[in-house]
Amino acid sequence: MNTIVRFVPYAVIALGLFFITIGVVDLAGTLKFRLSANTAMAEIIRIDVEKVQAEEDHRTIDTYRPVVQYTDAGGTVRQATSPIASQQYAFDPGDEVQIYYDPHAPGDIRIAGFISSFLFPLVLTIMGLFTIAMASVARWAIRGDKPG
Asked: Which pLDDT value is given to residue 140?
């Protein structure tokens, strides 16, 4: 059998491992941030709109990034912009949200919530597992072995 055809499943498995690695590293960073951060209730004071150029078709897309105001543990009122922007937003000015903030860099915030914290690493990890599973099936099919 062609050497290249035999190599493809292994390359795809490596790609799956790459996805899993990125997902796990991102998850670890999120957990590390949350464990060292303080929490506070914050008010959405505005939604910043950013124009982003789509690479595929060169159109401009609006992305939305919430700006919050909160009082830190020392009693100082602060404003910070979420590092996560999206094409849709679930917040309106005046909404109250829970945030995590770095006490040593109070402008570094994360809005609490599953989607904003865990969706990206979870999707990457699932993509990696699915990719590895499909490549393993392909490898067994190419070799003529049965799974298991």
From this structure: 80
